[in-house]
Request: fold
Amino acid sequence: MEQGGHHILIIEDEQPIRRFLKASLSNEGYRISEAVAGEEGLRIAARQPPDLVILDLGLPDLDGQNVLKRLREWYTAPIIILSARDQETQKIAALDNGADDYVTKPFGVGELLARMRTAIRHAHRSGPEAMTVTVGDLQVDLAARLVHRKDEEVHLTPLEYKLLATMMKHAGKVLTHRFLLREVWGPLDSQENHYLRVFVASLRRKLEDDPARPKYILTEQGVGYRFASDY
Ligand code: CA
Reply:
């Protein structure tokens, strides 16, 4: 499908990955710029600001987190991180430093494209927030604070509702434990990860067909949660 010719900057030192990304994304109608190192990436971004940046964290010249921080000093469009497996701390740091999302190597191009679509959609959303959010069988009316599942009303406690509404407003995007705790409980409780586990478990019991194999509230191991947006 044509993606409106969005301009994507890929900052990645590994040539096979760069080549694979360029081929896959060009095929989807994206325009591609490439950089093999951090400084070069920053220069290209400044010269011709892209609609989205794909940034590898392991670069030869600069630490990827450093590139991310320097980009975020002025660049507001989405940044998606490429990270190695088992780098939960790095992923969380990248999200805290302003990345919109990440994919873990080795990744499938379908997964990356879904992340890119979500990030671009969120970035381009303007005007007032939608008053209802629908994902799969679930519908949340944000004005009336009502939740329906398969057209039946679901009764949630105020905190369960707040957590669900926060996740659904960001459907498709990874949300860190810290972000969710801050949004739902406020800054004082931001270390209390077990609150989240308890409330997520109870939401899954009320919303999922099989709470042990959730299709709405997905766990991002070691990082946080992601509310599904694609079916
Ligand atoms: Ca690398």
